[in-house]
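Q: A reviewer asked whether we had any structural model of the full assembly, not just the individual parts. We don't, so I'm hoping you can provide one. Inputs are below.
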Amino acid sequence: MMAHARQFIRQYAFPYLLLAPSLLAIGLIALYPFLQTIWTSLHRASLILPDSTFIGLGNFRRLIQDDGFWNAWTNTVYFTVVTVLFETILGFAIATALNRDFRGRGLVRAAVLIPWAIPTVVSSRLWGLIFNTDAGLANYLLTSTRIMSADQNWLGNPGLAINVAAIVDIWKTTPFMALILLAGLQTIPGELYEAAAIDGASFLDRLLHITLPMIAPVLLVAMLLRTLDAFRVFDVIYVMTGGGPADSTEVLSTLTYKVFFSATQFGYGSALAVAMFVSVLLLSAGFLFFLRDKLEVG
Amino acid sequence: MATQTDTRLTSTARPRLVPAPAESGRVRSRRRTKRLLGSWLFWLAIGLIVIWSVGPFLWVVITSFKLDRDLATLPPILPSEPTWSHYVNIVSGRPFYRYILNSLIVSVATTIVCLLLGTIAGYALGRLTFPGRVPILLGVLAVSMFPQISVVASIYTMLQQLGLLNTYAGLVIPYNTFALPLAIWILASFFRGVPAELEQASQTDGSTRLGALVRVILPLSAPGLFTTAILVFITAWNEFLFALTYTSSIEHQTIPVGIALLPAMYAIPWGDIAAASVIVTMPLVILVLICQRWIVRGLTAGALKG
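A: Here is a predicted structure for the entire assembly that you could use as a starting point for your response.
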């Protein structure tokens, strides 16, 4: 009987005992605050006046009619789609190049990793310098090669600013994509390509029928992680444009931050945060559905 | 005429039986040009990749050595008279070292806490089988991916009630929301890689499971611990949203906040910003150059298991 109890403890209690400190920590600093946010979203509450009145779904009714929210939502989706798309293409190209054996490969791999290690605040400043109107490198290169006839006010132009912010994000996170895809490429057995070469398969054949199907699971997981990360973008926008010009770069995180800490409307801000979380949830659910489908086929 | 066509026919009709030597010179040279072109294109691609990755940072380094009058226009591309003045401004004029000190304290403390908690949790998730293991792993991953903005205000109220706003603890505690799941996830995948026989051997020697963790698995997972430490440190060093929200004075603000707020205090001093950027980025660039092998392993550990 005693031995049985000891066996039970070893099997079930021990793992949870080890997990307890971490789960407690995550519960206290992530789960509890998140539930608190949901609760606050049902109230009219502010930072200065903590006394709040329960208003049910009032904040969400306001949110649905709020043009500012939909503008930020659209900008966030645009930013996410553009960055993930280009990160995937560039990351795949870099991974393909690095998958070859050549002299100095380690050094090139380290160089590729540098943008990833630079703080986003710094990379935003760095690209801000390059896209500066008067003395920026971008204007200088594009006008002196006559690609553009006149200097462009990159960050002051509502149509361009969000794309400049997207470039910063693409620059910073392509290394992540490239390295994960490189690890995926290295698991493909070389015999597959040798067999394809004997059959006279072209580059496109090999890409479509060997490489892509083989790395599809890794590719989709990496794209999911990047999508979730891009959707919560804050640093680049806050530092580069602050949401302007004319709200053209306002994303959900920056809008929510302003409602929280400039307007100090904790109730409405919490509703925005919840709406953002639901969007992320739907996005990843869709992705996982697609992923499961792909994994079954592969 | 006739014999010439004949030879050509035979040489193309049976290419597999008679390999390389029988190929006509033209075919061979075309193939060589193709290979040469391919290798040229390959090195061109490598060159573009390196310029894209390093170029913008190099540009900031160049900018940081320019005099203010060279900064207002382009050209000159290179500084007409290289100057250290911006570095002198940053190091002496403003309490910039304070930001660096704050960042160091917060990042090191976060790394230690995450390694302590993450190692035992990662051991349980990586090596033990128990009901609920997979849901917990996925839950941990979900927490690391959810938007920080959805907890930023609640944590603010919490820290305010505890009197922890504008303290180091007020940054280290919330940093665990994203750093701890990251640490657990990477460590679990490293622990899974340690051969089970070694652990069993040590257990038959009479040591407990915890003893096996300390004596056998930890030393074998040293690269994993090192990887986790680097990744958590860099993530904490680069964090901006929480640091911006929970600190309001230079006593506890970190480097990203310092750099973001520079222009608000002074009329965009590009030279000084460039110098500050170089100062805070150099250690990271050196870290990447030295530790790239471990960083790559850590970055890919999570995604490949999924």
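A: Points you may want to mention in the reply: The two ends of chain B are 66 Å apart (CA to CA). Residues 1-20 of chain B have pLDDT under 50 and may be disordered.
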